[in-house]
Amino acid sequence: MSFELPFSDREHAASLLAERLSSLRGRRPLVLAIPRGAVPMGQIIAEALDGELDVVLVRKIPSAIDPELAVGAVDEHGKRELAPYFHRTRTSMEWVELQTREQLDLMQRRRASYGASRRPVDPAGRLVIVVDDGLATGSTMAAALRALRARQPARLVAAVPVAAPDAIELIAPLADEVVCLAAPMHFLAVSRHYDYFPQVSEEEVIAILRSQ
């Protein structure tokens, strides 16, 4: 079953994802949102499934030529995932190393602010649902899934409203299940598949996490 695009907004997309994931209600899933855009979505899904909300910190590594193009991603432990097309982007490994250090510094600051009043939830032995608001390359989600798999969840589910077909192909081997509402052949930027797609602020993310 595919859904008509565009979604109205993140709330609409999250509600549809929660419906698709409804069979997991009652198993107290751990919903891990990729900041910042997916955190309000994760809150909706966690509440609908009687689950628990936290974040998984992963950052894109931008191309040296086009900052909008992700050539990979890195998790907060320093594990890096380069995109399959990396060698075609004219991006040097020196640039990748520089960006990796910058993104790690940013994630350390975010973890400090997000976790000021709470410890990160341990995914070991849990049913884990990783949520993002869309996948263009899939590298960020792939990095998140690899990092979480190493922490031995009982089951690992990737859940997104919309994704490029190539991104789904990339992450499929890394999750026990991929739930994607729409994978258009002519994929545009994630934001183009929503009518309303504002930036989510750090303050909003912190407020949501501290309310849990």
What is the CATH domain class? Alpha Beta
Average pLDDT value?
91
Number of strands: 8
User: How large is the radius of gyration?
Assistant: 16 Å
Q: How far apart, in Å, are the first and last alpha carbons?
A: 32 Å
Please characterize this protein's 3D structure.
The protein is 33% helix and 19% strand. The chain has helices at 10-20, 38-48, 93-114, 139-149, 165-171, 202-210; strands spanning 30-33, 52-55, 58-62, 70-75, 80-82, 127-131, 155-162, 177-182. It is globular. It has a five-stranded parallel sheet, sandwiched between helices. 47% of the residues are buried. The chain has one domain (10-210): Rossmann fold (3-Layer(aba) Sandwich), CATH 3.40.50.2020. It starts with 9 loop residues before the first helix and ends with a helix. The protein is α/β, with parallel strands linked by helices and 212 residues long. Residues 12-173 form the Phosphoribosyltransferase domain. It holds the Pfam family Pribosyltran. One of its GO terms (molecular function) is glycosyltransferase activity.
